[in-house]
Specification:
The complex is a heterodimer.
Chain A: H1 5-8, H2 15-43, H3 45-60, H4 63-78, H5 81-96, H6 100-130, H7 132-147, H8 150-161, H9 165-176, H10 178-189, H11 193-201, H12 206-235, H13 237-241, H14 249-258, H15 261-289, H16 292-298
Chain B: E1 4-15, H1 19-28, H2 32-39, E2 42-53, E3 57-61, H3 68-75, E4 83-88, E5 91-92, H4 98-107, E6 109-112, H5 124-128, H6 130-134, H7 139-152, H8 168-181, E7 186-190, H9 198-215, E8 218-223, H10 226-232, E9 235-240, E10 243-248, H11 250-255, H12 260-267, H13 271-274, H14 277-280, E11 287-288, H15 293-302, E12 307-312, E13 315-321, H16 322-331, H17 355-364, E14 369-372, E15 378-382, H18 384-392, H19 394-399
Parallel strand pairs in B: 3-8, 3-9, 6-7, 7-8, 11-12
Antiparallel strand pairs in B: 1-2, 1-4, 4-5, 9-10, 12-13, 14-15
Helix pairs in contact in B: 7-8, 15-16
The chains are: A mainly alpha, B alpha/beta.
Chain lengths: 299, 400
């Protein structure tokens, strides 16, 4: 009977062997994190200091100053009174419903994550656009980052760095960075080849071509990528709260376990409000910097 | 004596993953289709040899797929050849390291593109000044120059517009101004006028010819339109499937097509608009220079036909017929001097005139028309049958 069992049952490897592999890998990684965990943690120390400082800044500054500052920033970027007014109203509502502190915490970590994702993502996207080899290596990595469940890569991160802000930031960035990389690459590759030829023909060097032609012309696409990155970063807030990132995610988590529907809804809405603000502001900024597109729209 | 500026020798371009590996096949003389079928490589250009002189408009013409756009991109190495030498003056362009190649592109050559190649995020003024700003010139310098050139091409007042706000013709004027703004000696024009309406296109051709009269640039112009090539070219090279079929002056190409391919091309050309009288006239055989009627009659006997063109020290005077001369003989003594009672007025035509402009006169006249230059010298003659033969085209030629 034993001979024909492979017909009905997949001939899998021996249970003992499988256990050995798991044990081996687990203990190897544990060894590694014990050995190097502290070194790696210290690498992230400056980032942690900054995160703590920024969060404290938002929390200790009187609320009305924060609102005025944010509204002013929004106006500066978008030049739209309506948008600035909307921001003020939603912040007042958030504060009135008792979510001010958590919103500030989320705002601080999302801002840092987004800036880091952009700062890392655009250069990676540029590299990807310049070399087909780089693209063939990076594309599958991005696929993994986007499809691998967040919990899976949270395990080694938490094993290595413990629970707290830094693993949270890393998890958010891993999840949120692919769009900005992909769309930077795409935007640069889509730049009209004749315009690039013109730049080359007039003797532009690679740097002049990148900053004078490719990036400005790829900007609408890159901005779409940045936008997606911001949205995805915000959607990670709840998962990040599972590894100790304070903010709007924690009450949501609490309401899942305790079935507090209204608490969850309010905090969820606050996340949505932040997302809309980020989205509208970045869109308005993009539109304002793409003045040359107006001619096309009007024509 | 024309002074050569650009020389291209033995230029080959093969597209594919390993171009060098198929070069032996190319040198064996295998056909383009053979090479493609056997190796998957496309032979883009085959053994191109060219000399382009200073100050001329050199037109490279061919249909799409003939390799003309590939060829023009070799001049500034937007495309690197698989084999061959490109020399501008004494610089071997192929041997320039990247930095010097950039310098060469910035100062020696500029380029006008078929779809304009303007930068949509820069204003018209910034586009025109692009070449200079890439050279590292300050904004004050390039914007002043760019403004001048915009005026020259007739776009003053459009400085702050974006390219998308301009019409096609205007955009190509910006492209032309951008190319002229760097003061580069060589102008590469890749189907520069092909994307424009016929009317705008001929306007731009006029403008180019006009500019060239004052600037004397060396212009390499790509086109698929033979009429355009004949109109603006000092010399024309015809490409077919990556091979040079014929090189020569417009008249050469029209009157002595090298093979069936060129002939087929030339057939559809409006010759009346492309050829001058000088290129089709016959040498003068009816010159009468005698002082007296008697001598004139003797000269007339030597002429085939019964009339001649009377030329004295003041140049061409008119037509003299045998009948008129004989009538005079009957009346008076044959030693009478030639005077204006003997000859009739007959309009002469200029050797530089386009055939088109002399068709009515030639057809109206009873005689062949004399071709006379500005100084009154008799240069040749143009008959109706002469005209018919040339305008009749290649078919007629083949029958003869």
């Amino acid at each position: 009977m034993a001979e024909s069992s492979w017909l009905t049952k997949f001939p899998q490897m021996d249970r003992v062997d499988l256990l050995e592999i798991r044990k081996g890998l687990d203990s190897a990684y544990r060894e590694f994190s014990r050995e190097y965990g502290e070194v790696i943690e210290s690498v992230f120390d400056p980032l942690l200091t900054f995160l703590v400082w920024f969060e404290k800044l938002l929390l200790t500054t009187p609320w009305f100053i924060v609102i005025v500052a944010v509204a002013a920033l929004v106006y500066l970027v978008s030049r739209s009174w309506k948008l600035s007014l909307g921001v003020v109203v939603s912040f007042l509502a958030i504060g009135y419903f008792g979510m001010w502190d958590n919103t500030m915490r989320t705002l601080s970590i999302i801002t840092v994550c987004t800036l880091m994702a952009i700062g890392l993502g655009i250069p990676i996207g540029i590299v990807m656009a310049r070399s087909d080899k780089a693209r063939s290596v990076i594309t599958p990595l991005l696929d993994i980052m986007q499809t691998m469940p967040a919990f899976v890569y949270l395990i080694p991160v938490v094993m290595l760095l413990g629970i707290g802000k830094i693993p949270g930031v890393i998890a958010v960035i891993i999840y949120a960075i692919p769009p900005v990389i992909r769309l930077t690459n795409l935007g640069i590759r889509l730049v009209d080849s004749e315009v690039m030829e013109a730049a080359t023909a007039y003797g532009a060097n690679p740097t002049q071509r990148l900053f004078g032609v490719q990036l400005p012309l790829a900007m609408p696409t890159i901005m779409a990528g940045i936008n997606q990155t911001i949205m995805m970063a915000l959607s990670m807030v709840v998962i990040a709260s599972m590894i100790g990132v304070k903010g709007l995610g924690q009450p949501v988590l609490k309401s899942i376990t305790n079935q507090y529907f209204t608490l969850g809804l309010f905090n969820g809405l606050a996340i949505v409000a932040l997302a809309i603000i980020f989205d509208r502001v970045s869109q308005a900024y993009a539109k304002r910097t793409q003045r040359h597109m107006q001619g096309i729209e009007n024509a | 004596m024309p002074e050569p500026l650009i020389t291209i020798e033995g230029l080959y371009k093969v597209f594919g993953s390993k171009p060098e590996s198929v070069m032996p096949m190319v040198h064996e003389g295998r056909s383009k289709d053979d090479i493609l079928a056997e190796t998957g490589h496309t032979l883009g250009l085959k053994d191109i040899n060219l000399t382009i002189n200073k100050g001329e408009i050199f037109v490279i013409m061919g249909l799409s797929g003939s390799g003309k756009s590939t060829l023009i991109r070799h001049f500034n190495r937007l495309i690197d050849p698989t084999e061959g030498v490109i020399k501008v003056e004494d610089t071997d362009v192929m041997k320039l390291p990247p930095k010097e190649l950039e310098h060469f592109r910035r100062h020696k050559m500029s380029m006008v593109f078929q779809r304009f190649g303007l930068m949509p995020h820069r204003t018209v003024l910034e586009n025109v000044g692009y070449g200079l700003s890439i050279q590292g010139q300050g904004k004050a310098v390039w914007s002043a120059k760019a403004k001048e050139w915009l005026e020259t091409v007739g776009l003053a007042g459009y400085e702050a517009q974006y390219p998308a706000q301009l019409s096609g013709g205007q955009q190509q004027r910006v492209g032309l101004a951008r190319a002229l703004c760097t003061d580069a000696e060589i102008l590469l024009m890749d189907e520069a006028f092909s994307a424009l309406d016929p009317l705008i296109r001929s306007e731009m051709q006029d403008q180019l010819i006009e500019l060239q009269d004052t600037l004397h640039k060396t212009i390499i112009f790509i086109t698929h339109d033979l009429d355009e090539a004949l109109r603006i070219g000092d010399r024309i090279a015809i490409l077919k499937d990556g091979e040079m079929v014929q090189q020569g002056t417009p008249d050469d190409i029209l009157l002595n097509p090298a093979n069936d391919y060129v002939e087929a091309f030339v057939k559809d050309v409006n010759r009346a608009r492309a050829l001058t009288v000088e290129t089709v006239m016959k040498p003068p055989s009816r010159r009468i220079t005698a002082d007296t009627i008697e001598e004139a009659l003797i000269q007339m006997k030597a002429i085939k036909g019964d009339y001649g063109y009377y030329v004295n020290d003041d140049g061409y005077q008119g037509v003299v017929t045998q009948d008129a001369l004989e009538a005079c003989c009957d009346d008076t003594s044959t030693s009478q001097e030639m005077d204006d009672t003997v000859w009739e007025d007959l309009p002469s035509i200029s050797p530089d005139a386009m055939l088109e402009s002399v068709i009515p006169e030639t057809l109206d006249a009873d005689y062949s028309l004399p071709v006379v230059d500005e100084d009154g010298n008799l240069k040749g003659e143009l008959s109706k049958s002469n005209l018919a033969e040339v305008l009749g085209g290649a078919d007629k030629k083949a029958e003869e």
